[in-house]
Design goal:
By secondary structure, the chain is α/β, with parallel strands linked by helices. The chain is 37% helix and 16% strand. The protein has one domain: 3-Layer(aba) Sandwich (Rossmann fold). α8 links the parallel β6 and β7.
Length: 262
Amino acid sequence: MLDVKSKTDDNLLVHLRAGSGDPLVFVHGYLGGAKAWEDQVQAFRQDFDVIAPELPGYGASYAKEASSSIDGYANQILKFLTKIDVQKFHLVGHSMGGMIAQHITKMAPDRVDHLICYGTGPLGMMPNRFETLDQSRKRLRNDGVKATAERIASTWFINGEHALRYKECALLNDNVTTETALAGLKAMETWDGRDAMSSIDQKTLVLWGDRDQSYDWAQPESLWTGIRKSSLAVMPDCGHNAHMENPELFNSILRKFLPERK
């Protein structure tokens, strides 16, 4: 369920939470939202305490000020988890959320158990993205948030705007402001996690859809080869939002990687 009471507390983000067991935290990406993880909340609630926060400026956390740095987002997530008394957790980060997850692991390595870097990479500039971040910035200013979010969301699925879950993704951005959208682009383009990869000692899963238009193969490959205890899973015929295109396969891959309930 969404904890709407959290709107009154700067450190307590609105979030989805269900289940019991070891905490399993899902961090969404740019122009995403916690509701995109609803399939995973339902799938893992029997074995984990599943937590999916809304990043500041997104979804039901739209009233909170968005950060313009990955470091800022990572600090906000860590403060939120401390506030709800979650100290040790498994961590899943998607897209920009994957950058945040890598940075959280760098900042608080003792708190992260298993790490899943999904549809992401170690370089925020995203070489070979469907368009450059600067092009997205210009189109955002010219076309507005709604049109830009709808256009970008169509690239997340192999069937574009005809995909079954496309409209659901596009609607996640109803409350996102221009300031929040611009802050996210700045956060990504100024972040570089390549030097930190060798210090990640967690058991790590690198997960990627083979038709991803945001992160080409070089990005997940860098994570796979740069993180010592990493494994790789490639989802066939899936785009950037593989967890929504094929949730059954996505969830089975995560379940195999994550430890069984004690």
